[in-house]
Design brief:
Blueprint: H1 2-5, H2 12-22, H3 34-38, H4 59-63, E1 66-72, H5 83-92, E2 95-99, H6 118-124, E3 129-136, H7 145-161, E4 164-168, H8 177-190, E5 197-200, H9 202-205, H10 224-261
Parallel strand pairs: 1-2, 1-3, 3-4, 4-5
Length: 262
Amino acid sequence: MRNNVGVVRRLSAIFVVIFAVLLVSSASGLTVGAKGLAGANDVVRADGLKAMAGDGPSGDELAGRAKVLIIGDSVFDAFDHVESARQLLDSQQKTIFAVQGCQKLIEPGCFAWVKLSALDQLKKNAGRFSDVVVIGTGYNDRIGTPFRQAVLAITQEAAIQGVDVVWITYRQVRHVRGKATTMNKQLAKLDPKIENLYIADWNAYSEGKEKSGWFRGDRIHLVTPGANGLARLLNEAVGIVVAQREAERAAANLTTTTTIGG
């Protein structure tokens, strides 16, 4: 079923990582690092910025922090107004919200008072969350080279911080259809080339939901049912990526324990 299975493009990596954990056998002396298997289908980045398993914070350091940072423009601004959607997200993982109308990816927003870009928000919240940044910004940005540069800048900053990126696709409707289609194609091309980038397909997930009362008249901005729907998609996507990261950490810890214990 597309809505449950096709949320993130690299789902198979999760099961490979979990399988890697099961391969650690102290009896035989075999220790297989999770990254060695999980990265088999990924394109390795030349800049080496992706944090390796075991390089991240310890369990004690993670305990008091949020797992997720959500950054978004006026579409995601619904989370500031729909309490049930915020609760859906916070009930699965502690979440920080950095959403603002007219926000852009790497430039100041389209209104003078929107000074922080998505990249600025990511840098501002460095160290306050442990695992995933969700990017829901982009409708106010330019397609082509500027959009590609923005994706690279944000994923590189996330890699420096040791977190993964879940990028939400754009709805291909009405006045933004052409722009959104181009951006979604660009994301699809970049996805296999950037190790810490995952795509959550909001365009597909929300298809036809106009009839269910998810959207305002522009078919982009959300009312309560739509905000709850977006929250459910984010929970699915983030849950998958966090599970992978936790499996990688577990595999790294098992490898370390086996090595030290002989």
